[in-house]
């Protein structure tokens, strides 16, 4: 069986096709195809409030490519989810309707809470019972914060703070204050807090960090890694550090969110699992298939 997840974010759109593997009843997903393309929808939406004609055309072209790849791989089921940029665009619903009419593909505009829930479903597998965690998931348009006591999520909140939104200077100061207050009100001060970072930017920063035996890094190590990256111009990051262009120009804006959340929560260290929204989408696709099988 093969399934696919398509995540249309504010910065890039990703598709992952995976085989479903079963080993003595334990299910896992093996990646067989992964494609990422920088649509940069946030640039349109955070400045103009809507997605322009050229960007809509790129969405349709990209989804056409994704559809052909899924057909070649004989994918059994897939799910498309779009986050902050498309859901905030005043013409977002109209674009989804045209995509459905022209391509026969359904785009689901998910809320920040739903996004956090889908990521939670895969992140929880990485957690230990006796640790308090602050999960920081940074996208181009929004940041989702989740608090865990062991494997139990206690609360969560979505904020309109993201790497592209900061780059476009579209984050008001009071939004930062709201995030800081939420962390202060919800993160306990009497116990150690471990941060979990998800998102492409923190994964890239982590490549320049020597982690401990548990795969964790301190805030100081992360800041040192970022200083190294900032020592290069955007063009040098692309050519010398081999970053994608749409990563090279937003990485320091994204790091501001991760590092601020760690400081406000007094997190002692962070680990970065190789998981994100696309993995949560894959899990939901699989679970939906299984429910359909049960009702046959």
TrEMBL record:
Domain of life: Bacteria
Gene3D superfamilies: 3.30.420.40, Exopolyphosphatase. Domain 2
SUPFAM superfamilies in the record: Actin-like ATPase domain (SSF53067)
Record-annotated Ppx/GppA phosphatase N-terminal domain positions: 26-285
A Pfam family the protein falls into: Ppx-GppA
InterPro entries noted in UniProt: ATPase_NBD (IPR043129), GppA/Ppx_hydrolase (IPR050273), Ppx_GppA_N (IPR003695)
Listed PANTHER family: EXOPOLYPHOSPHATASE, RETROGRADE REGULATION PROTEIN 2
Name by which UniProt lists this protein: Ppx/GppA phosphatase family protein
Source taxonomy: Bacteria, Pseudomonadati, Bacteroidota, Cytophagia, Cytophagales
